[in-house]
């Protein structure tokens, strides 16, 4: 995601971090990112299209949270 963000000017990594911080709450995440909830949904959908991420999996979300904590601090 980081490489995709750098190459395409997207904000997938911070979007994913915020979404995980808000436990998948679309409204809270959208407010935190100052974007419309539909924008957030579109970003999440695009993330799953450009990566093999399965965001509906609890194990995947936990692994991502741990990796993001290690990457971003």
From TrEMBL:
InterPro entries: CdaR-like_regulators, PucR_C-HTH_dom, PucR_C-HTH_sf. Residues 13-69 form the PucR C-terminal helix-turn-helix domain. It holds the Pfam family HTH_30. This is PucR family transcriptional regulator.
């Amino acid at each position: 995601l980081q490489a995709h963000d750098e190459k395409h000017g997207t904000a997938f990594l911070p979007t994913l971090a915020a979404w995980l911080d808000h436990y998948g709450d679309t409204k809270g995440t959208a407010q935190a990112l100052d974007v419309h909830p539909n924008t957030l949904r579109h970003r999440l959908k695009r993330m799953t299209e450009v990566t093999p991420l399965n965001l509906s999996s609890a194990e995947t979300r936990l692994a991502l949270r741990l990796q993001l904590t290690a990457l971003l601090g």
